[in-house]
């Protein structure tokens, strides 16, 4: 691939030591993001997608969290070997993050203009006045109407969509935006607002040439936004490919099941029942070394409970991690067609 | 079709105490002059964005909230005219499934006593009969009766929602309001619960009102769909009609904003640019949607359009499709 890699994670293992035992939240995860690309990290609750994001900018609370092994290479540097101070500088300048809850991630007692200006004052040694002017500029960039006035508003005076725009503005405060991590950026928003925010993110991505790591559980958002997709289940990467490979030719039993359980799937036009995945997401405490999806999988065999499968490459850039890959591909497309 | 429920000009207003010194109290019109019928066996979906009044409507229909004005006729009898005893008897017929399976179950009660509570309140039968009923209903919703001595926290979200459904169905109701019943669940579990609701409906001849903000879910499960905006119904149609022909600009905008799960479609989609939902406390004059509507005319700013039957069974409240 000719594109330049911006970030690559290799064999990341993140554990949490809890009173009930060790939770292996992320296991042997490797992924990369190219410059200017949108990578979507998809999965259900507890699959480790947010932990992965927090590993990148080292927001994992330690203890109880432990990054057992692995490396996070960002522009040639291993972030896991950097000091707190170095990571902190990166966070404000080249890696930024938007959180899910625009209601709780802004400080309620400061005006939004001041909160935005803070970023510039902390990371670029600007004077207050200059920083405020920059803040207004950013509010304009994220299409907040009458930004000069809004900069003097408190968070509670803004709607949820507007607050998320402020969060995005804050993330854009970095001068040379490298990577933006968006953790469920639209989950708390109504669909008409969600559409606007997604549009905005796409616009900005082109404008400031950043890469986007989009964490979501919503396959619709993935289909609209992503260039490439990594599907996670219970801490493991189970499928990786371009957005077209994943949606046109889903090949891991979990991805197949996930797409089949969407009520918007075309095949349910005249049907009255959904094809649900049986069972529940497993408890991360009781996972063994086998494939975590084995107990819900139609194709599982003895070997699935014993060890996690290796990679099966289906096409360039499209891989699944499944013991019964050939069988699933032969039969899976049939049920999906 | 037998009419199970008729809602006539139902209004539910909330008086908001003013936070400044002004003497005027603001009024929030959560449900504003809503009328519709519900036939037996229907699954009526209600969609809309947050604050559109869909949950308030669901609760007012069941008389969990008092009304401000209007009527709710259940088999022809007005619920709000009923005495306490009559209402209690009728509650057996109408139940509700709530959104959050985490906060809607008492964490200190065992599953068996959560499910048998409605049975005890309504004097279902002898203790032995109640135990038998609890076990059979648990089995029906897909929870092993063996687990009945467990507490809610020992179950996953999907299982808890099954328990919520078991509670609602324990008294063999004929009408169930599901308020965002699957929105807190993961997609793979959501499909299981939707299937369960459909199975139970077939088996027990149930009628549902299904309130949700997820358009794909509502489109899948409903037979007819109501679209609400700021307390008002803007469009009502059968699922098929609504798919073919969306008349109200808000319905169009809402459905086009909903992300499609097909990456090939993403560039073909028409983008409808819209601002925020206005505050329901002081909704815009005339048609509440006009500030966000690309087709707004003068009359839209002045007068609220009536809900009119434009095609058979297909109602919309929009000046674009009718003369003033």
How would you characterize the overall build of this protein?
The complex is a heterodimer of chains A (337) and B (324). Chain A has 2 domains: 5-226, P-loop containing nucleotide triphosphate hydrolases (Rossmann fold, 3-Layer(aba) Sandwich); 254-268 and 275-336, no CATH class. Helices cover 35% and strands 24% of the residues of chain A. Chain A is built from 12 helices and 12 strands. Chain A has helices at 49-56, 84-93, 112-124, 128-141, 147-150, 160-171, 191-208, 219-225, 243-248, 253-260, 302-306, 325-336, and strands spanning 5-18, 21-34, 38-42, 65-74, 77-78, 95-98, 179-183, 211-216, 228-233, 236-242, 311-315, 318-321. An 8-stranded mixed beta sheet of chain A has the order 6-7-8-3-9-10-12-11, sandwiched between helices. A 4-stranded antiparallel beta sheet of chain A has the order 2-1-4-5, covered by helices on one side. In chain A, β11 and β12 form a beta hairpin. Chain B has 324 residues and is an alpha/beta fold. In chain B, 31% of the residues lie in helices and 23% in strands. Chain B has helices at 54-61, 84-91, 111-121, 127-140, 157-169, 187-204, 215-221, 239-244, 249-257, 298-302; strands at 3-16, 26-39, 43-47, 69-74, 77-78, 94-97, 175-179, 207-211, 224-229, 232-238, 308-311, 314-316. In chain B, the strands form 2 sheets. An 8-stranded mixed beta sheet of chain B has the order 6-7-8-3-9-10-12-11, with helices on both faces. Chain B has a 4-stranded antiparallel beta sheet with strand order 2-1-4-5. In chain B, a hairpin with a 2-residue loop joins β11 (308-311) and β12 (314-316). The longest helix of chain B has 18 residues, at 187-204. The model of chain B has no long low-confidence stretch (mean pLDDT 89). Chain A binds chain B through residues 44-45, 159, 161-162, 190-196, 198-199, 217-221, 223-224, 226, 243-244, 247, 257-265, 268, 272-278, 280-281, and chain B through 49-50, 156, 158-159, 186-192, 194-195, 198, 213, 215-217, 219-221, 253-254, 256-266, 271, 273-274, 276-277.
